[in-house]
Amino acid sequence: MTNTGRHMSTKFIYFFGALGGLLFGYDTGVISGAMLFINKELNIAAGSFANGFITASVLLGAILGAAIIGPLSDRLGRKKLLLTAAVIFFVGAMGSGFAPEYYVLVSSRILLGVAVGAASALIPTYLAELAPAEKRGGIGTLFQLMIMTGIFLAYVSNEWLSPQGMFGLSSAVGWRWMLGLAAVPAAILFFGGLFLPESPRFLVKKGQVDEAHKVLLQINPNEKAVEEELHDIKLQAQIPSGGFKELFGHMSRPVLIMAIGLAIFQQVMGCNTVLYYAPTIFISAGFSEHFALQSHIIIGIFNVVVTAIAVMIMDKIDRKKMLTFGAIGMGVSLFVMSAAMLVLKAGGGNLGSWICVIALTLYIAFFSATWGPVMWVMIGEAFPLNIRGLGNSFGAVVNWTANFAVSQSFPMLLIAFTPAHAANAEGQGIAKLFLIYGALCFAAIWFIAKYTIETRNRSLESIEADLRSQAHAKGYTEEGEPTSTKPLSN
Ligand code: BGC
């Protein structure tokens, strides 16, 4: 194969490897716009349980999908499951688009959620296992880039397919197209996925060393580096596959705590509320509805651009530094935004409104460049090979559960924090809530310093070797069993 051919195929592999992220972003992002019309068409009262459940169903499905994929992925491999997820994406999208009534719609949304959750647990592992160590962060960030692109496309389709949009569709039909269109990238993912290689780490684990060698060479033409990598993978693959005992055992405990913490903090710092409530925030800050909706699209483009920059810098800066920097930036932006919104009550005027817009945009930029991608990259690379699928799936379950908790509690907290009689009452409520998310950003800095390990520019095998030797030093065997019968302290 020529160099150019090799280069092309690497791009193909990474593109299709990460493409599930686009469906993740589209399917979670599209509902806010579609909801406006679904309520009318299916006779659902705004603000009712049934209404909230249309959004929540994807999140619940995602928790389920992320949970079932872990044990399967260590047994069946990453590729087969990615193809299965593509089929579920397709069926879920068609089911949502053609849903004749409410229950078909929510069942299809749960199904879609299963695929979203599965993709979120599979793709970071798959990309981490394919990429050479020195490029792993950037390649892992392609997943986030796809998520952001998916969210952006969802905003665009919400705008174009609404009755006022460029296609002038009726309100009875537009939302069906919004939801159903996700079947197109699902089909592309399936057909592209057929040509993807299986993860070389998984192949070695299954004894297919020659095949693994071929895949590694396709990705990294440096024969000597590939030989060394294969040697290390083979050593690690001799360790028997693990289960929950190993996941919760002493050896993997440091990375388990890291994954749980990163997954929770990524959500409780408020990323999804800021993203989805951006138009409401703009309106509360005194801008027109038109400005708010237009700027949502502009923020969508901005997100994609910032994440694309993150792809380029991800392997040049330590992951821990990026997380700390991101948490400071997000925390300060939230505090500034809150202050501006509270001052608006006292007649902060135009300047306050613009400070709000700038702080919100900066918050999203900090998130997109740091916590958005780094969380997924790190949980994809941190766990030892014999429980990698399981560990990543566990991290994804925690992330989706935290996402669910934050999205479900937001409207209730907003009511609780909104003063009964005040000009711009909702803005006041949002401002107070953002102070809490801001404080949690600073708590995240403490967590990073205390509980995370640096993974940049290290082979997956060296990260794993360190975990084993640390466990050994604390008096545990390589498999995490105590070396003596004496009780051990942590
Ligand atoms: C987060 C999602 C979020 C998305 C876009 C991901 O990294 O896990 O919860 O919706 O980024 O902001």
TrEMBL record:
Keywords: Cell membrane, Membrane, Transmembrane, Transmembrane helix, Transport. It is a multi-pass membrane protein. Residues 13-456 form the Major facilitator superfamily (MFS) profile domain. Signal peptide: none annotated. It is found in: Cell membrane. GO terms for cellular component: plasma membrane. Pfam families: Sugar_tr. It comes from Paucilactobacillus nenjiangensis. It comes from the Bacteria. This is Sugar porter family MFS transporter. PANTHER family: PROTON MYO-INOSITOL COTRANSPORTER. InterPro entries: MFS_dom (IPR020846), MFS_sugar_transport-like (IPR005828), MFS_trans_sf (IPR036259), Myo-inositol_Transporter (IPR050814), Sugar/inositol_transpt (IPR003663), Sugar_transporter_CS (IPR005829), XylE-like (IPR047984). Belongs to the major facilitator superfamily. Sugar transporter (TC 2.A.1.1) family. CDD domains: MFS_XylE_like. GO terms for molecular function: transmembrane transporter activity. The chain crosses the membrane at residues 12-38, 44-69, 81-100, 106-127, 139-157, 177-196, 255-279, 291-313, 325-345, 351-376, 397-417, 429-449.
